[in-house]
Specification:
By secondary structure, the protein is an alpha/beta fold. It contains five helices and nine strands; from the N terminus they run βαβαβαββαββαββ. The chain folds into two domains: 101 residues, Formyl transferase, N-terminal domain (Rossmann fold, 3-Layer(aba) Sandwich), CATH 3.40.50; 100 residues, Formyl transferase, N-terminal domain (Rossmann fold, 3-Layer(aba) Sandwich), CATH 3.40.50.170. The protein is globular and about 50 Å long.
Length: 206
């Protein structure tokens, strides 16, 4: 492993989360570098990452013969970039994580897991469900990824109040502000070697 942790990011959308982490790396606030971005489709995040000087690949799920081949292609690109830690950032395709990457893949979810997680719960669907349930608090969760949707060990959570006049858009904006703090915090803890997975619980040392 190099002095800087090499990050691989998987995206399907705007790429704002990746660029936030990239900017923190460039500013010296994270001991890391974004080594590669892989997109599951043509999206705004591809051009944003290229404009930031990050190597980008697009691997379209629908154009791959089967899920295994798709997962193998992702692993091949991550291996080629000598990736130490993989960050899912709004990635909407299924990746069957190979044993080599177990405990080295993180995701950020726009709710407080284990509530409002699982297949189909992403983006505005999550915020709509939180509001429909009448929750008074929401937030975001960074967790290690397993091959079961949103079930991996939780690393960091941050909360926001749910206001009486919230819409999915206003709640999403407030949650995203916390995502921009939570994900870098989790990456920093990993880079510092302070995370230990104990069953389905993450222990943070120091």
């Amino acid at each position: 492993m190099s002095d800087k942790l090499r990050l691989g990011a998987l995206i399907s959308g705007g790429g704002r989360t990746v660029l936030n982490i990239h900017d923190l790396c460039r500013a010296g606030e994270l001991p890391c570098e974004v080594a590669v971005v892989i997109a599951s489709r043509d999206c705004a995040g591809v051009e944003r990452a290229r404009a930031a000087g990050i190597p980008v690949h697009t691997v379209r799920y629908k154009e791959t013969p089967d899920p295994r081949a798709y997962s193998d292609r992702l692993a091949e690109l991550l291996d080629g970039a000598r990736t130490d830690l993989v960050l899912l950032a709004g990635f909407l395709s299924m990746w069957n994580i190979p044993p080599l990457y177990e405990g080295r893949v993180m995701n950020i979810h726009p709710a407080l897991l284990p509530s409002f997680g699982g297949k189909g719960m992403y983006g505005h669907y999550v915020h709509e469900a939180v509001l429909a349930a009448g929750c008074k608090v929401s937030g975001c969760t960074v967790h290690f990824v397993t091959n079961e949707y949103d079930k991996g060990p939780i690393i960091v959570q941050r909360t926001v109040p749910v206001l009486n006049d919230d819409t999915p858009d206003t709640l999403a904006d407030r949650v995203f502000e916390q995502e921009c703090l939570a994900y870098p915090e989790a990456v920093r803890l990993f880079a510092q070697g302070r995370l230990t997975i104990d069953g389905n619980v993450v222990r943070i040392s120091g």
